[in-house]
Amino acid sequence: MAAAGMKPRQLAAKVGVSGKTVERWVNDSDLIPHPRNREDTCKALGVDEEVIWPKAVKERIKTGGDREIVHSYPYRSACPSTVWAELTETSSEELFFAGYTNYFLWTQVPDFPGILRRKSEQGCRIRFLLGDPNGEVTRQREEIEDVAFTVSTRVRMTLENLEKLGPLPGMEARFSSAEDAVNHVSLSVFRFDSEALVTPHLARLVGHDSPLLHLHRISDGGMFSRFADHAEELWSRGVPV
Question: Residue 98 and residue 96: Cα distance in Å, rounded?
Fold first, then answer.
């Protein structure tokens, strides 16, 4: 900071903090100010953040498994509809919708039926894994959620929409098996080629109130693969709709 030709008290006046605060920044290399203060300081000095606080920049860089996490949302409903639409539209090889009900896709993605038809014509594999609307786990989940818009109703909405689509080349739908239903209802996986949106369902919350992770595959054995393999295992024991 001194090299920038500005004394601590001069800098403090520009940043809006006390001179003693700036002196602590200068004298303690391990002390990292609040992001807003770092930004204001860098603007005042005309330098990049990594020049003054390289440790703060380094800590923001994702490493290991974190690199596959594109974004996290505290609620599925907080994920913009544009994300769902873009992932669906840009996929060319694999669309795998392994939510328990999947009904919301027809409202979340504009012209969802049209996209599915185009993807089918282009040779994309399309799969829907659903919960059995008449299954015991479905009944139990309805008691837990205790909402008028029941789980079985949401599943049947998807079945009705799939029926309207008619048979499409490369598209298939299955119910998860009875022994897998409890694992299916607690975790939704939506795969778009090498990206996925994953929702672990919390306690009594419905899907849109549960958190969501946006993942991008980088290597085998990462976060993407763990969830994709889970969905594939459920699919392998599924029952054709």
Answer: 6
Query: What is the Cα–Cα distance from 229 to 225, expressed in whole angstroms?
Result: 6
pTM of the model: 0.74
Q: Write out pLDDT tens, residues 219-232.
A: 888 999 999 999 99
d(CA 135, CA 64): 40
The contacts of residue 2 (CB under 8 Å, 6+ apart) are 26
163 Cβ contact list (under 8 Å, min separation 6)? none
Kindly report, residue by residue over 26-48, the tens digit of the pLDDT: 666 667 777 777 777 777 777 77
Nearest 10 degrees: CA dihedral of 83, 158, 205, 208?
A: 20
Which contacts of 134-142 are long-range, i.e. CB under 8 A and separated by 24 or more positions? 135/175, 135/178, 135/181, 136/178, 136/181, 137/178, 137/181, 137/182, 137/184, 137/185, 138/181, 138/185, 141/100, 141/185
